[in-house]
Amino acid sequence: MKVLIISCGIGMGHASRCTAIAEKLMENGVEVLFASYGAGYEMLKEYRKYETVKLPDLKFYGGEGELDIKDTAKKSIDTPFIFLKSIYSESKVIKDFKPDIIVADSHYSVPITAKVLGVPCVLVANELTFNFSDIYPQDKTVEYLENGLERFIKDVSRLCKAIIVPDVPESIEIPPRIEDKVFHVGPLLKEDPADIPDKNELRRKFGFNYEDKIVLVTVGGSEFGLGLLKIVCRAWDLMDCDRIIMVTGPQITQDFIPDCEKILKKTFLEDMMEWMKLSDVVISLAGHTTSMEVTALGIPNIIVPIDNHPEQLKNAAHVKKYGISLIRDMKELNPEGIAADVNRLLMDETLKEKAEKTIETFSRYSGTEDSVEIIMKHAHDNREPL
């Protein structure tokens, strides 16, 4: 059996969670091929274990830590051409690889291509609606853009055999008429938290001292995380920790990060969940995959959504309810404030009980296994003669 996985390449999260699905499929003897672009493509190349095809790039615009919807819309005049180019590239990959089924992670041209070529498609998405008009309430152009996108997503989703939501039930709004296709499976994790070694064993494995206070900073691989990284770089000597691990992703240079013993620079971590678990505090943007991983592990964290990014704002609000996350506004962030937050989390003994409850909540789900079961079912159904 062959499965083609085509993931959104904006940031590393979509491709990262798809590797969890790929691993389980390959354990079942399935041949897997990836296709992506941007940071997702670069991350998959770093893995060096998956064959990956490059797709045309899509891009969002904004400053450091801020998404600009208006500027993105203005600069995306060639989007129809890119969309058609994507469909052409996807169709070429599909015809060459001849998959039994396609998994599309938040890449919405794929269900159309798959339908035209008669290949079943399963969609993975942690968001099916948008809230751009909440950010620009007086702008009719943004409202029209949002309405058009939501109609498009709904129509495209109806072309899929199933829609996998990698989160708990009621985490997102499900548009009417596609509810029967939606499966909330819980987070797609590359490792079962229960199977990951304990903190002391992980620290021994990666060469850290047991008593070290460790802070992990990760920004998802896009340039939108540059602002957060620069603030942490101005705050490192104010943090009462022994080591700071900075994961920049492949699209951010590390020239501005201080060279000192306290800071460990990483471009990419294949075993990210292990590095999270050995840490005492995690600082990150509010990408869905990272938010789910750190929450499922029960690690105290500071979440900083990209400004004006509706999905990240929703993600932050979602994880806040578990009580182990501090949510901070990118516009109001400063070195003294983030250092104070880190020091507070490092000293707060009450977080242990909340962390245990959070781990218990997420342990009820088997997102990766359930997703693979859904994919395999529809692949088998497609192969059976009518």
Architecture blueprint of SSEs:
Blueprint: E1 2-7, H1 13-27, E2 31-36, H2 38-47, E3 52-54, H3 69-75, H4 79-97, E4 101-105, H5 110-117, E5 121-124, H6 132-135, H7 140-157, E6 162-165, E7 182-184, H8 199-206, E8 214-218, H9 226-235, E9 243-247, E10 263-266, H10 272-278, E11 281-284, H11 288-297, E12 301-303, H12 310-320, E13 325-327, H13 335-347, H14 351-362, H15 367-383
Parallel strand pairs: 1-2, 1-4, 2-3, 4-5, 5-6, 6-7, 8-9, 8-11, 9-10, 11-12, 12-13
Helix pairs in contact: 1-2, 1-15, 4-5, 8-10, 9-13, 11-12
Describe the structure.
The chain is an alpha/beta fold and 386 residues long. The chain has 2 domains: 2-186 and 366-383, Glycogen Phosphorylase B (Rossmann fold), CATH 3.40.50; 193-362, Glycogen Phosphorylase B (Rossmann fold, 3-Layer(aba) Sandwich). It is 44% helix and 14% strand. It has 15 helices and 13 strands. It has a 7-stranded parallel sheet, with helices on both faces. The longest helix has 19 residues, at 79-97.
CATH topology of the largest domain: Rossmann fold
- Based on the structure, what is the oligomeric state of the protein chains? single chain
Low-pLDDT residue intervals, each spanning 5 or more residues: 65-71
**Distance between the terminal alpha carbons, to the nearest Å?**
19 Å
How would you sum up the major sheet? Answer: 7 strands, parallel
Strand content: 5-15%
